[in-house]
Amino acid sequence: MPKGEAMLLEMRNIRKSFSGVEVLRGVDFSLKPGEIHALVGHNGAGKSTLMKVLGGNYADYEGEISLHGDKIRLLSPRKAIDRGIAIIYQDFSLVPDLSVAHNIALGREPRGRLRGTIGHAILRRRSAKEAERLGIRLPMDASVRSLGVGTQQLTEIVRACSREVRVLVMDEPTARLAPAERELLFSTMRRMADEQGVGIVYISHFLDEVCDLSDRITVMRDGLVVATRPGADYTLDTLAELLVGHEITGREASRAAAPTSDASEALGATQLSVADRPPLDLAVAKGQIVGLAGLVGSGRTRLARALIGDVKADGEIRVGGRRVAHVDPERATKAGLSMVPEDRKTLGLALGATVEANIVVSALGKLLSVLGFVKPGSRPRLAEEMIERFVIRPPDRRKIVGNLSGGNAQKVLLARALGSRPVAMILDQPTAGVDIGAKVELHNQILAAAKEGAGIVVISDDLDELLDLSDQVLVMNGGRLTGSYARSDLTRASLLAAISRS
Amino acid sequence: MTTSNDTATDRVTSRHGWQWSSLAAYALPIIFVLLLIIFSLAVPYFATWANFGNVLQRNSIIGIVACGMLLMIITGGFDLSVGAVGAMSSVVAAVVIVQFSMPLGILTALALGLLVGAANGFFIAKIGISPFVTTLATQVLVTGFLFVGTSAQPVYGVPESFTVLGLGRVGPVPIPTIIFAAVALITWGILRFTTLGHYIYIVGGNKAAARLAGINVERVLMTTYALGGFFAAVAGIVLLGQTNIGQPASATDWPLTAIAAVVVGGVPLSGGVGQVWSAVLGTLLLGIIANALNLLGVSPFWQPAVTGAVILVAVGLDSYQRKQRERR
Ligand SMILES: Nc1ncnc2c1ncn2[C@@H]1O[C@H](COP(=O)(O)OP(=O)(O)OP(=O)(O)O)[C@@H](O)[C@H]1O
Ligand SMILES: [Mg+2]
């Protein structure tokens, strides 16, 4: 690293442990003004923890931090904010019942006419202007609760970017964004870096994005930095290897021949109409994987929720060939349909419970109990098995799920769905925030489940994932099915075109 | 751009939910008006100014307590010690008034209420004990001190003129009701206009987000509980004005009745949402029902049962509608 160049931020020998376990083991990290510096590493490497230290979340870290050459100690979020450090956390930190405008202004509400009062009108106008400046359109008066995940993410981005920032940290901001929104975000980042000299730390598991975008890349593994080099020095492959620590072994034989058309049906719907949209038909055979592609807001999640009976819909739903009457999540689950929701934090996991409790909950009623009594020893056994199959780190079934790294929490969610051996499964963004090594693992598990005979619907914004997994890809737009393609007829480009066509 | 696509669908859904949600938002006022009409037609003497004055007179105290309770419920907590604080306030005011002077008595009582409230806030925010446990403990603690200090005897000797606060009227309007209205107005102003009020919603909606946004969560909680204690002390003084006796064993039913009034008004205990009119309307709703039963000659023993049923029905309707809306 050239010595003469002035650093905006320097973190030296940072250490942090949780109840005796050292998670950061002496990390050095630096940031230049106007630089986009990517931070990559496997799930649980300590990326988020390092950035939380920078955000003033942990008063008990060891090591040295200096900003503009001044030594500082970051003991509270307020201190970090006052120093111009803004962080978009991996798991959202929005207030669900507040409007978008108020969330954008969170913690820096404009003063009203009197001391101690708030200028609500000023606030709304200012938030709208800030969003507009970034080229992002948001429904300012809607409550955050009513928004989709993508829009929530954009709200969070506007909030962070509209502060007086010198250091901006984005912890996997694109894990839940559609391609067009990503482009928008990248151009915004570039502009902030070039025009305002903001230093940006960018965490992501999309290595191609990282390679394209970053001036420098730091790779972390198990709480240590293994490399910090200019972005141009890496290729996708070297980066992936550094990150996982070994060569990535190819996936198990990719999709075997698609199941014959006479395979019996795992999940089906006829004349299903959701929220006054035109009715649609859907059929997934046993052993088949159907990809559901579309833009954010195209109604994929809503369709998934309708299939499991979580939102009202008219029409017939069949699981394993049998009709499910008056479908609701409980009946659907009993019939053998299980769903992995996209929002793991609020819908998916019991955050305060252990990994074991979360993994076994779906299988409990079916596989693990007799007449309402749990078979002794069966719970830990299933949990251990799943932890091993899904490479959940740390491999401790007693760990509280809320304390897992984001990607590992996602693995727990998938392990739960697959562990209950469902007839049919709906996976909504199954690998959001999962590192490339683990992603291959998860894909293998999904393929294995299909091979065992489950019918699977995969919703994803990641086109490569859809192409890797699916036998058939359905495209949705504005709540209707606008296309159906066999895998063999698709290329990445033709799929992208099909999605973007409206 | 895809964002507009996304927001468009969001709007569509919110438009679909519009009729229901606006109806649900007005469910309580509608029930309230319906009951008013039914009672006026069916219950003798109900629709008289004297009776309305009577209802207001009787329920203003709980209304004052409910306003403070609302603030604490919005932060995601509640306060079981408001009854003990009310009793303490009336006893302490009585003692100081008898020994020294009226203004000093009122001031001391209010200051003590503020103090106990702030102590609640301290244990909840700084130490991290749950609101339930904290306020249960302070309730018992304060009541205990009160019994020790008074040997469980009522305090007599407050001058007759003090009853103006509890029994006086300005024209047809009882003075307690004016105090209630003032407290409600202040609460409304806090929630609507001040930074504190806004932060109360944020802390109740997502504590972690509030902290990460640099909001001083501890201070917000302490202030809220202090306000709750203060309002309870105000109610205690009004109570003294009604009875003229500092009664250490009084006001035991305040906490649960005030919580009932707020939730009947449609405020969920989960925090993050709530408006003043909910607390006011909830108080009055419970008030007119009790009053109608009274006028009909129903045994007072029946009243708790009816109140219980009303809570289940009102809150049940609200929650059920919310659930339906989420499924659309
Ligand atoms: N509050 C906590 N209590 C206990 N352990 C924690 C806590 N927060 C994080 N950890 C542990 O610290 C390690 C690093 O987690 P961190 O969230 O920094 O990973 P990450 O690199 O961001 O991973 P991901 O890519 O999955 O988001 C993990 O093993 C995690 O389980
Ligand atoms: Mg992380």
TrEMBL record, chain A:
What are the alphabetically sorted keywords of the record? ATP-binding, Membrane, Nucleotide-binding, Repeat, Sugar transport, Transport
Q: The ABC transporter domain covers which part of the protein? A: 9-247, 258-501
Q: Which InterPro entries match?
A: AAA+_ATPase, ABC_carbohydrate_import_ATPase, ABC_transporter-like_ATP-bd, ABC_transporter-like_CS, P-loop_NTPase
Q: Does the keyword Signal apply?
A: no
Query: Its domain of life?
Result: Bacteria
Question: By its UniProt entry, which Gene3D superfamilies does this protein fall under?
Answer: P-loop containing nucleotide triphosphate hydrolases (3.40.50.300)
UniProt lists the family membership as follows: Belongs to the ABC transporter superfamily.
Q: What is this protein called?
A: ABC-type sugar transport system ATPase subunit
Species per Swiss-Prot/TrEMBL record: Pseudorhizobium tarimense
TrEMBL record, chain B:
Q: Which UniProt keywords are present, listed alphabetically?
A: Cell inner membrane, Cell membrane, Membrane, Transmembrane, Transmembrane helix, Transport
What range does the record give for the signal peptide?
none
- The protein's superkingdom reads Bacteria
Compartments annotated for it: namely: Cell membrane
One Pfam family this sequence matches:
BPD_transp_2
Q: What is the membrane topology here?
A: Multi-pass membrane protein
Keyword field contains Nuclease = no
| Major localization class | membrane
Q: Which residues cross the membrane?
A: 23-47, 59-78, 90-117, 129-153, 173-191, 220-240, 252-269, 276-295, 301-320
Keyword Cytoplasm found: no
Could you give the subunit structure recorded for this chain?
Answer: The complex is composed of two ATP-binding proteins (LsrA), two transmembrane proteins (LsrC and LsrD) and a solute-binding protein (LsrB).
Q: Which purpose does this protein serve, as stated in its record?
A: Part of the ABC transporter complex LsrABCD involved in autoinducer 2 (AI-2) import. Probably responsible for the translocation of the substrate across the membrane.
This protein's name: Autoinducer 2 import system permease protein LsrD
- Species, as recorded: Pseudorhizobium tarimense
